[in-house]
Amino acid sequence: MSGHTPNPDTNPHTEDETMTICTDTTTDQLRQVPLFAGLDDDELAVIATAARHIDADAGTTLVRQGEPGHGMLIVIDGRLEVTRDGEHLADVGPGGHVGEMALLTRGVRNATVTATTDAELVHIGGPRFAAMLGSFPEIAAKMLPVVATRSR
Structure pTM? Predict the structure, then answer.
C-alpha cells in the first residue's frame, strides 16, 4: 500500500496520487449497491465518473462517527470494521459498502469505519456525485424509491 491514505470524509476534495479515476470495471461493483440497483449499464457508467479508487493501509480510519459524511465506500479487496460508540457492528469485505446515504444526505456519520487489513476501495464523493446528478436528473429519479425506503 501507499503509506498515505486520504480520508475522504475529512477532505472530500482530495485528488492526489492515491486516488485514481475508476474505469468501466467499476460498474460491476456499483451494481451490487442497493442505491444503484435500478440503474442500467449506461447510467452506472455515469456514476462511475464520480468514483475514485483508494488504497487504505490496515488501521486507517476512513469514516469517523459524529463527523459529517461526504460520500460512500465500496470494498474491492480487504476488510473494514464498522463500530458505533466503540462497539463492533459489522465487518465489511469485498463487494460490501458503507456510507451510501451520505451521498444524498451529507448527514453526520453514525459509525466509525476502519480498515482492518490493507484495502482497495472505491470512493464516491458527495460533491462529484451531486454535480453528476445535476447533469443527469433521470438517474436521481431512479434512485428515489430506494432513498425513500431507506429513510423510513
Answer: 0.78
